[in-house]
Amino acid sequence: MAKFLTNKEENYAQWYNDLVIKADLAENSAVRGCMVIKPYGYAIWEKIQAELDRMFKATGHVNAYFPLFIPKSFFSKEAKHVEGFAKECAIVTHYRLKKDESGKGLIVDPASKLEEELIVRPTSETIIWNSYKNWIQSYRDLPILINQWANVVRWEMRTRLFLRTAEFLWQEGHTAHATSEEAVEETERMLGVYSDFAENFMALPVIKGYKSENERFAGAIDTYTIEAIMQDGKALQAGTSHFLGQNFAKAFDVQFTDKTGKLDYVWATSWGLSTRMIGALIMAHSDNNGLVLPPRLAPIQVVIVPIYKNPEQLETISVAARNIKSTLEAQGISVKYDDRDTNKPGWKFANYELKGVPVRIAIGPRDIENSTVEIARRDTLTKETIPINGIEAHIGRLLDDIQKNIYLKASEFRKANTFSVDKWDDFINILDNQGGFIMAHWDGTAETEEKIKEETKATIRCIPFDAPEEEGKCIYSGKPSKRRVLFARSY
Amino acid sequence: MAKFLTNKEENYAQWYNDLVIKADLAENSAVRGCMVIKPYGYAIWEKIQAELDRMFKATGHVNAYFPLFIPKSFFSKEAKHVEGFAKECAIVTHYRLKKDESGKGLIVDPASKLEEELIVRPTSETIIWNSYKNWIQSYRDLPILINQWANVVRWEMRTRLFLRTAEFLWQEGHTAHATSEEAVEETERMLGVYSDFAENFMALPVIKGYKSENERFAGAIDTYTIEAIMQDGKALQAGTSHFLGQNFAKAFDVQFTDKTGKLDYVWATSWGLSTRMIGALIMAHSDNNGLVLPPRLAPIQVVIVPIYKNPEQLETISVAARNIKSTLEAQGISVKYDDRDTNKPGWKFANYELKGVPVRIAIGPRDIENSTVEIARRDTLTKETIPINGIEAHIGRLLDDIQKNIYLKASEFRKANTFSVDKWDDFINILDNQGGFIMAHWDGTAETEEKIKEETKATIRCIPFDAPEEEGKCIYSGKPSKRRVLFARSY
């Protein structure tokens, strides 16, 4: 079989990059830090979008669209937000090009300078709350439960396909509420949606928790996160939901009259999930043969490859293959029949393994004689021969089983790579030699957190919701602590 | 009934703007020329997207995503494209903000000036063909059939919600082919998709035709268009499909080896349809009571309003209403039951008329006694009382009938406002006093076209595909002509 990839045990970063390129998911573009999401990668994003959009609507949200550009002055309005976002960003300063003196090239027309520069949105709280100001007068106008599917730009210096790019695609929810309780409930609800999506669709076990103050969204009172472990033992933040309190309402002067006739500022949440999740999907499950996609997000769930020596054989096999295809499609299973004559079966097998298609069906002349097919599953790389009769039930069960198995494997990996650590030496040793999730005591101060980060590059990924109360001593300072928090190096 | 809108007979432009605002479709934002698409307007766009996306995929296309930014130099590569697009555009020149001396405001960091400015895409031919260069070596790599859903920016000076905004949403198809014939076929196929969509979903009769050279897309060999008439007699270009020849392949040096081993430049098409179509939808069908939405694109197809005097009545009515709702939803019909106690039925009736909901069901105590409901259709504003028993079949037929009727009405309007004109005086007279589509002879020169435009503001909307050959004299120059072309003032 063709060898497409660097071994992940040899060079994990190179393995990841090879995989993204060779599986035709994305590539770098001519614009520094911006990627091209190729059709196969975009098809995964479409699957992610469809499921999340369904879940958002089922929880009462509607979609809308706000401008790409944000006036520079908006960023200064929320004191902490400006620290976090008004730094590395794309700034529009002019609105016209003209020909240069040679008449062939183009220059920026100096006469077209904007009075106020526009920032390409890195996130949309400011422009959205500036709109909400006009939408909200009374408690009757609340809640507002809006989501936006959009592109955003953050001028990242070091970029990696899907994981960190200057432009990326995401959804951002922005909700407005009459009470603090309702906004906190919404923040929790949406983290629940993300965690449900991660576990049941991405087959990605996640730890739900609070971010420490240092790691909070700029402008949030509280940030909830789901954290997943990758196969190199690093953590990846897979989705965040923020309780914004009244910060943005105050910054944009959004007040409402409550039921008692009293004026108050509106309570807010925001929550987002991006194309970064495709990076997580790749890094959590894939192997040295290529992608391993959970069936529920696989653009192609089943591929059928004919094995033949002459056109007559192909013709007979094609009749059976097309029957199987339509039988499976009737069950809502997506199927590709690859009868291209330009590539041999062995090449096709390797190619669909690279692309992570969960189930491969091979049909040869002997299968036709016996009314059987050979089935290979991508997750375990095992094969079996089954009768064509009843194939739809078999494949349906198989896809469910693969989905569960991928989740189980990732859960077991996480279990094997999560350590409860009490000594600083062990803490460093684990980070340097094997990686993984470390549950350790922390004294609750930003100062200690900073020092741990400086010395080890590990950060507090979250304070897990379900961390039991337990007396202990901070792994770094030795000061008292009431519960363990999750440390890891991260993407 | 509440009067929400300016009469369209009094001030069509004001009526349109009132309608967009009052029906909660969109509003202007704090950023000049950029709109906020509100949830109800965005829901219509989601319907449009879903149908078009289905049609694109059924014709073999896949989605992908290319960068928002395009290096300035890319625009100079195609000689005509630069004339059309590298003018009024948003230009990114810097990538960092820093605090000003006061420490509160923000300024652009001069040290962050980009070596080459980036243009926010007004259309993506250049960045896409720059990518295709690496994707295409042989005829085996062709065709490439890609579509992108994206936001684009054109720095328009005079903007109108949906019709002309600095930022808008659209889809842009970009295909690559081995032969000219195949590319032309694709250009025709996609115009067919647009015209099918316009007529069968938007209930908008369109005229398919070629653009004159003056009106072609910058960089195209040929532009095909669908043109629709609005209720003020002006034309609106509702979708275009371009045969680009080898222009972009030559500009970006994209060559392939054909079956005989010969090197040739790749053939291209592009085609796009935007949120402008929501403007067309509004202007083609709506009336002085508000929106009239064709059922196939209506976010809410049926609204149920309870008529009651006390909570007991509401309770009884609600049971019936919820039954009807689930019966209709089981048929794939989208239904809203509005039992809010904050507004009276009369207000609700007017509000759903404003919002263009195709069918309204009212249920009062007497209806409950008789097992009937009152049904009102939005297009004709007529009412009837029908039995609840069998309501799903009745509503299903009614929605089909409304869809057809809206199309028919628009067709009749177009017929009544299309004029075959042979005299210059009549030409001017019609344009100035009633508006409409004018079929007239033209000598085929750009010069005449320009002069007609200068003197009357009318342009050649298209040379209809089905224009019969007919000897005649140019309406302006008197020179010989072989067929009539379509003139109109336009949006």
Short recap of the structure:
By secondary structure, chain A is an alpha+beta fold. The first copy, chain A, has helices at 12-22, 39-58, 72-75, 79-85, 125-135, 180-200, 247-251, 276-285, 311-329, 345-354, 365-370, 391-416, 424-433, 446-456; strands at residues 26-28, 35-37, 62-63, 69-71, 88-99, 106-108, 113-120, 144-153, 167-177, 207-210, 222-229, 235-245, 255-257, 263-265, 267-274, 302-306, 335-337, 359-363, 372-377, 383-387, 418-420, 437-441, 459-464, 472-473, 480-481, 484-488.
Task: Name its key features.
homodimer, 491 residues, alpha+beta, BirA Bifunctional Protein, domain 2, Rossmann fold, Translation Initiation Factor IF3, 3 domains, eleven-stranded mixed beta sheet, five-stranded mixed beta sheet, 14 helices
What does this structure look like?
Two copies of one chain form a homodimer. With 491 residues, the first copy, chain A, is α+β, with helices and mostly antiparallel strands. The first copy, chain A, has three domains: 12-91 and 120-285, Bira Bifunctional Protein, Domain 2 (BirA Bifunctional Protein, domain 2), CATH 3.30.930; 297-413, Rossmann fold (3-Layer(aba) Sandwich); 418-488, C-terminal domain of ProRS (Translation Initiation Factor IF3). Chain A contains 14 helices and 26 strands. Chain A is globular, with a radius of gyration of 26 Å. Chain A starts with 11 loop residues before the first helix and ends with a strand. The interface between A and B is large, with 65 and 65 residues.
